[in-house]
């Protein structure tokens, strides 16, 4: 089995399309199709079914791909181990992080990392948490910087905890119940009975986000469905709407700003999540990858510490 040919077939499987796989591999569609046809002729059987412009592996294709994935994994892990042994600080790190907090993390620590490892390149995907986990399983990325709680952990993934943070409820400072927060609510996060806001409109994080699962649980326990003004995948948009005195909203503690025109609460049940990194169990991590994880952990810890002392 030719490793390059194997990688071509895996790309077709992942993209479910010859044209998309060719684009990913920087090949022409015709060249990739010829490689597939050549392999299918050699094996004497089709590896994919063509269904409405979608490439679906046949039974023979699945058998081929199972072995193909193992061979590519062995090659990648072997190269990583040899680079570590020889202290050759070159190669690529494939990571995923969120478009907001994750992107900010990367922009802060990359200059430091690059000075230490100038020959390491990055392949980056900016996605929401649920999509990032899929990318790890598909081996599109090695590391995913995500948020999670115990019941959301997958048994086939390893998790390295960095810092926990609360889910907070923010009210505009002009809200009639804002006085219940008292002084310095950004430090104390007093409890609020969510049913007091039964008639309020809310700005909500999108169902694509992991925190939305936590938010929905709070409303479920409070016994009512919220009146939703609108939903957004952007936490910064949600935070901005509260500061502009539009409506209450839930968001992570790391977005708390003591100087913003809002007050902060927690609601039953008290909920928090962990920021960390996940990767496939048994995956070999190089020294540069471990160093990058350590830098990310220091960054997230500092963000929460700084917010609590502003």
How do you describe this structure in short?
The chain has 310 residues and is α/β, with parallel strands linked by helices. The chain has helices at 3-15, 18-25, 29-43, 59-85, 101-116, 129-137, 185-188, 210-222, 235-243, 287-309; strands at residues 48-51, 54-57, 90-97, 119-126, 143-148, 157-172, 201-205, 227-232, 249-252, 262-265, 272-280.
Report on the architecture of this protein.
The structure is a single chain. The protein has 310 residues and is of the alpha/beta class. The protein is built from ten helices and eleven strands. Helix 5 (101-116) links the parallel strand 3 (90-97) and strand 4. Helix 1 crosses helix 2 and helix 2 crosses helix 3. The protein is elongated, with a radius of gyration of 24 Å.
Rg calculated over all Cα atoms: 24 Å
Mean pLDDT: 90
Our count of helices gives: 10
Shape: elongated
> Per DSSP, what share of the residues sits in E-state strands of 2 or more residues?
15-25%
Main sheet overview = 7 strands, mixed
Q: What is the number of beta strands? A: 11
- SSE topology string: HHHEEHEHEHEEHEHEHEEEH
**Percent helix range:** 40-55%
**Ends apart, CA distance between termini:** 59 Å
Stretches where pLDDT is under 50 for at least 5 consecutive residues are none
SSE-based structural type: alpha/beta
Question: What features would you highlight for this structure?
Answer:
alpha/beta, 310 residues, 10 helices, two-stranded antiparallel sheet
SSE topology:
Blueprint: H1 3-15, H2 18-25, H3 29-43, E1 48-51, E2 54-57, H4 59-85, E3 90-97, H5 101-116, E4 119-126, H6 129-137, E5 143-148, E6 157-172, H7 185-188, E7 201-205, H8 210-222, E8 227-232, H9 235-243, E9 249-252, E10 262-265, E11 272-280, H10 287-309
Parallel strand pairs: 3-4, 3-5, 7-8
Antiparallel strand pairs: 1-2, 5-11, 6-9, 6-10, 6-11
Helix pairs in contact: 1-2, 1-4, 2-3, 5-10
């Amino acid at each position: 089995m030719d490793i390059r040919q194997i990688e071509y077939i895996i790309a077709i499987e992942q993209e479910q399309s010859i044209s998309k796989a060719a684009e990913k591999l920087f090949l022409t569609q015709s060249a990739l199709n010829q490689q597939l046809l050549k392999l299918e002729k050699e094996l004497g059987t089709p590896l994919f079914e063509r269904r409405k412009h979608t490439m679906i592996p046949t039974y023979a294709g699945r058998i081929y791909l199972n072995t193909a994935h193992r061979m590519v994994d062995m090659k990648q892990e072997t190269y990583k181990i040899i680079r570590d042994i020889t202290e050759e600080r070159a190669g690529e790190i494939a990571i995923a992080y969120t478009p907001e907090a994750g992107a900010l993390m990367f922009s802060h620590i990359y200059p430091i990392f690059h000075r230490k490892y100038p020959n390491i390149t990055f392949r980056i995907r900016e996605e929401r948490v649920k999509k990032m986990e899929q990318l790890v399983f598909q081996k599109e990325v090695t590391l995913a910087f995500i948020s999670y709680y115990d019941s959301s952990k997958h048994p086939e993934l390893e998790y390295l905890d960095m810092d926990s943070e609360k889910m907070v409820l923010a009210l505009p400072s002009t809200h009639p119940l804002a006085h219940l927060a008292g002084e310095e609510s950004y430090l104390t996060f007093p409890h609020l009975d969510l049913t007091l806001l039964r008639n309020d409109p809310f700005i909500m994080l999108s169902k694509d986000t992991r925190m939305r699962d936590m938010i929905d649980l709070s409303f479920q326990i409070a016994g009512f469905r919220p009146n939703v003004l609108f939903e957004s995948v952007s936490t910064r948009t949600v935070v901005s709407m509260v500061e502009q005195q539009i409506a209450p909203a839930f968001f992570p503690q790391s977005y708390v700003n003591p100087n913003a025109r809002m007050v902060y609460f927690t609601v039953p049940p008290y909920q928090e999540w962990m920021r960390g990194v996940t990767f496939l169990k048994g995956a070999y991590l190089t020294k540069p990858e471990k160093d990058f994880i350590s830098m990310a952990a220091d960054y997230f810890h500092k963000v929460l510490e700084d917010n609590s002392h502003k």
